[in-house]
Design brief:
The chain has about 625 residues and is an alpha+beta fold. Among the domains are: about 1-175, Tetratricopeptide repeat domain (Serine Threonine Protein Phosphatase 5, Tetratricopeptide repeat, Alpha Horseshoe), CATH 1.25.40; about 495-615, 2-Layer Sandwich (Heat Shock Protein 90). It has 22 helices and five strands. The chain has helices at about 1-15, 25-35, 40-55, 55-75, 75-95, 100-110, 120-130, 140-155, 160-170, 175-190, 195-205, 215-230, 235-250, 255-270, 275-285, 290-310, 310-455, 460-480, 485-490, 495-505, 525-550, 585-595; strands spanning about 510-515, 550-560, 565-570, 600-605, 610-615. The protein has a five-stranded mixed β-sheet, covered by helices on one side. Helix 4 (about 55-75) runs antiparallel to helix 5 (about 75-95) and helix 14 runs antiparallel to helix 15 (about 275-285). The two termini are about 40 Å apart. The relative contact order is 0.03.
Length: about 625
Amino acid sequence: MKFIKLFLLLFFHSSILLSQKQTDFEKVQKRVQKNYFTEPKAALKDVILLKKLAKTNSEKNTAYQYLGYVHNFLGNTDSTRFYIQTRLNFAKKHFKNTKDYYQAIIDYSNQGMEIIDSYVLIKELTEGLSDINEQKFPKEKGLMFMLLGDILLRDGEVDKANNYFDKSFGLITGKLVKVDYYVRKSSVSIKKQNYTESKGFLLNALNYVDKKHSYAYPIILNKLGYTYVMLKDTKKAKETLLESVNFQNKNGFNNLTSEAYLNLYYLAKLQNNPILEKDYLTKALETNQDDIYLKKDIYLGFKTHYSKLGDLENENNYSIKFNKLNDSILNLERGKLKTDIESRFQLKESIKEISHKENIIKKDARIKVLYGLGIGLLFLLIVILLLIYFYKISIQKKLRKSQKKLHEEELKLMQEDQRKEIIKEKFNERKKLSMELHDGIANEIGSLKLNISNDSELNNENLDAILSKIDKLYNDVRNFSHELDPENITEVEFSQLVNNLCSLIERKGIKTNKKLLITKDIDSLDEAVLINLYRILQEIINNIIKHAKATEVQLEIYEDDEELIFFVKDNGVGLVNKPIGKTGIGLNNIKKRVEFLQGTYEFTNLENGTSILIKIPKKTK
């Protein structure tokens, strides 16, 4: 059910578009839309403000929608029930047989799956489906069919659920549709104990899922692992379930780990391995995230385990826990209908009270507006008459003098600001030009010089390479006339730029030990950041080639959640004649670029060579 909610909410989230001309309401809505899924606590204040700003029926409907979303993610059951019911009643009244009405039914059923009685949910869904136009609203109809299937499957009506899943398929479009369909079909097959059919559906689902980042991947693995257990294919069951656990640990999908360990317990039970049975049950209980239905099965597993071992005391303890939790679940199910009826009654009473208060407030507001308007007009009339009678001529003279003086002062200030700005811009341009000339053209000329001096024989291939570098120098100089725009750097993946620099070292006969532990996310960093990162590495490499006299270079670039780390080490002569505090323009440029990126640097003289450690935060302030 958690996967269903996540899939539907992501589907709706991607479908919401804002107009170009934004009102205050739309600005707040944009913030709520951005934060409600990842930071519901932060979004709560904005969503309350959104309700206050709502004027039109469409805006009020949107406010109720996000109030339901936020309270659902915060786990506020009563508030979630109140707002999804409020929105549904509001949509019935103002948006009957429109997309907003059908979307309200879908959200009501999706978010109310665990807190509202099945009978009530089915009633709302069938009422919406009875008059929906499939040609105008195919997606909404498909989603309502799918939710009906989920409710019926949960209540044990397997054949009806399977029928609704088939009806939904083809009406809904999107990246996860086939994955979602095959997972549901496998659940039907598992309920029917047709595990061979379930395996086929799940293997089909794997063909359409992103195995690296998808939330659906461990869900499929858990079901597939359980299916293999039921088919007594112990080898594949173990491989599949352990892959699910490892994937979840790596990607942070830990709310499914408990189920994976419970399925591993079933596997150990099949293999008659009591030690592993207890170990997997313990892990399943430790990783359970308040899923009472799963916890009930874990307690039952412990009871069965200790019964088999003849440990009557522990068997009795877990039997008591199982029965207590089972009774709680039954009471919870019985309470859903009662709570739902009570909440509907309270909602009706609240609507009546709110409507009465709103009418009183509107009347008082109209009276206050009329009274204030009358007083204001009278006061304005008196002020105008007095000004005309007493001060007309004198004020006009003073006004002209004041305006003239003010205009002269503003002109002087404007001229002074412009002069300062021009000086500042000239200084920045000179500073930029100095840095780019040294890091770009100077380094390329130095590299060209080294190529010519180190090549004993200049064959056609070498001449072509030298001519190519001369062409590049020509292009660089030409680009300076267009404000030194380094587009060629940002058009290449950062990892390839690093590989190119390493190739430059190796062509000089220097052994390179390279380790790159970076993702492609680095290429999405700001253009200025990427350019400065490249220039830093370029400066370090050229300094090693020209000054270090090294035979071996170690280059490591890796990242964590917060920062990028560059570590470069050579076995050359080090900085013996240049203390760290007295460096040349090359190392100074490295420092300036690191400081510009709000990073830190550390130059270290070693017994043989030099090491440089640079840390750059991914998000600058």
